[in-house]
Amino acid sequence: xxxxxxxxxxxxxxxxxxxxxxxxxxxxxxxxxxxxxxxxxxxxxxxxxxxxxxxxxxxxxxxxxxxxxxxxxxxxxxxxxxxxxxxxxxxxxxxxxxxxxxxxxxxxxxxxxxxxxxxxxxxxxxxxxxxxxxxxxxxxxxxxxxxxxxxxxxxxxxxxxxxxxxxxxxxxxxxxxxxxxxxxxxxxxxxxxxxxxxxxxxxxxxxxxxxxxxxxxxxxxxxxxxxxxxxxxxxxxxxxxxxxxxxxxxxxxxxxxxxxxxxxxxxxxxxxxxxxxxxxxxxxxxxxxxxxxxxxxxxxxxxxxxxxxxxxxxxxxxxxxxxxxxxxxxxxxxxxxxxxxxxxxxxxxxxxxxxxxxxxxxxxxxxxxxxxxxxxx
Length: 377
Fold this sequence. Notes:
Blueprint: H1 26-36, E1 42-43, H2 58-64, H3 81-91, E2 98-101, H4 104-115, E3 121-126, H5 132-138, E4 142-150, E5 154-157, E6 167-170, H6 182-191, E7 195-198, E8 221-226, H7 227-230, E9 239-244, H8 248-259, H9 267-302, E10 306-307, E11 314-318, H10 325-336, E12 338-339, E13 341-342, E14 353-357, H11 362-376
Parallel strand pairs: 1-12, 3-4, 6-7, 7-8
Antiparallel strand pairs: 2-9, 4-5, 8-9, 10-11, 11-14, 13-14
Helix pairs in contact: 1-10, 3-9, 4-8, 9-11, 10-11
């Protein structure tokens, strides 16, 4: 018999993993109102390179997907060997150190499943990527923040001891653009736990990048990456975990056992991976040209209010602490038609910061940051 759903029907009590009924914040409400009213807005939060006017080698990308071998299903929990070899060559590791995932978010999920039992915790940086709380909660894992402190440079204030099962780092960080330094990784080694490094922005340094933490041989390091940033192709849904250190072989066996329950990476993108990664430097160079040009514009507009990033796609502007970063973001949106994220979205420990993306089209970005700078002064 066909089921008919009554108004107000509830399928039962949902899990408590996420705050399903949380009210929208004031910034989101105002943004929806402005968009519904048809207002012209300058979006300084655009994070999708495929919508930023970047020139892609479209025909070559589509041609890479026309591989008849994708018609044959050859399940491998670590990912097809050919694709792992391409990822390994691009990252200077052995193919045996690579496990493929459908995204970096899925890579986190696999790591949490492998490292943690429900109720365990992981150390996460703040300020940083706002998705950590959700990804951990979906696996029944708790997060313990550690501060990124800005003095002469950003540094990680890790605890001297912890019961957490791993330390998470983003290098370069989103949104601060700071690197997790070798001395920071050395402090992780003293804690005796693995280091999980989100290195998706590693190809977008604004200067000389420090060596990757996986260069520390006595530390178990899991480095996450993917086509989303490495080739500016978030729609291709291919990520990876690079495992190095003394415990890497055993960890990869366990990760493969978890991945075998899902087999989520599609054959077409794995078959296309060698050609997509061959195209990646050309795409990255165009994205990097955009971010560098926009960073120059932001330097001129914001001056000393800019917290100079070392890499990545984002930048932080310090606003006067006479009001909250949410208040600044709301006024910019309401009065100037400029969308900038308030710092509390990224768990900044104090007021007042605004976060902007360096991806928007250059002319629009210049106009937007000029309005932002005028508002702050």
